[in-house]
Design brief:
Blueprint: E1 7-13, H1 17-25, E2 33-38, H2 45-51, E3 55-58, H3 64-74, E4 79-82, H4 94-104, E5 108-112, H5 124-140, E6 153-156, H6 172-182, E7 188-192, H7 206-223
Parallel strand pairs: 1-2, 1-4, 2-3, 5-7
Antiparallel strand pairs: 4-6, 5-6
Helix pairs in contact: 1-2, 5-7
The chain binds guanosine-5'-triphosphate and magnesium ion.
Length: 224
């Protein structure tokens, strides 16, 4: 519990046995529920997560968005916090993000990795890709977006009932932000967070995922 609210953390994982151990070891004690979505991992992610006290939910169909939809469906907290299982997002920043959300006047807050402090944390290709996608999203939705691809969000669970979340892929990250910013009852803000290099093997395929995410922005804007 935090300020009278039940807190759930949701972490999608595909082969993150190294990273998830470090992430869960630093999880604040006030977090009531930790849901690790095991996306058909072939390593010991699920066993490690269970040993560290997390609730493991299985999603056999691969896909970042798919994993999130299954995890969010199982969440029971009033407030949900998301991050990767690769230790790249600041677990220690959770109480700070909660304080900001509680005072923000919106229901959805996204952690922005930009302006990027630690340049080693993101390859040049990822950096340019993220910047281009954020610029296109800003133009399409008439609103400056610092980090359209950020994977750390904090929001009230009730906001989910007003969102239409279709994507099963990495595009889910931009989709949930779009659903928050186009829905006045939800509201959307960004707050700076630190970002560090991931632990474990990279899964993201920059060109494939980059193109898909770019096309998805136009689909979301013009087709919905
Ligand atoms: N890529 C990918 N990640 C998944 C999938 N299912 C779950 N995940 C998890 O989703 C989170 C984000 O994926 P990452 O591969 O870290 O993507 P990224 O953060 O954009 O790329 P990195 O800079 O390599 O960390 C990680 O915790 C993954 O383990 C999947 O099917 N594909
Ligand atoms: Mg990552």
């Amino acid at each position: 519990m935090y300020s009278g609210k039940m807190i759930t953390v949701v972490i999608p994982c595909l082969n993150e046995e190294k990273g998830i151990k470090k992430v869960l070891a630093r999880m604040p004690r006030f977090v009531d529920e930790i849901i690790v979505v095991d996306n058909n991992s072939t390593d010991r992610t699920a066993q490690v997560a269970k040993q560290m006290g997390a609730r493991v939910v299985y999603e056999k169909i691969r896909g970042y968005g798919r994993a999130y939809k299954t995890g969010l469906m199982n969440a029971r907290g009033d407030i949900i916090i998301t991050l990767d299982g690769d230790q790249s997002y600041p677990v220690d920043g959770i109480s700070y993000l909660l304080e900001v959300l509680l005072r923000s006047g919106v229901q959805f807050l996204s952690g922005s990795r930009f302006p990027l402090q630690n340049r080693q944390a993101m390859s040049f290709k990822h950096y340019v890709g993220n910047k281009v996608l954020s610029l296109v999203m800003s133009v399409l939705f008439f609103r400056w977006i610092w980090d359209s691809q950020s994977g750390m969000w904090i929001f009230y669970r009730e906001a989910l009932s007003r969102m239409r979340l279709d994507s099963d892929t990495m595009a889910f990250s931009e989709e949930i932000k779009i659903e928050a910013l186009i829905n006045r009852d939800i509201g959307f803000k960004e707050i700076y967070i630190d970002y560090t290099s991931r632990v474990g093997e990279i899964k993201l395929q920059p060109w494939r995922d980059g193109w898909r995410n770019l096309l998805y922005l136009f689909k979301k804007r013009f087709v919905h």
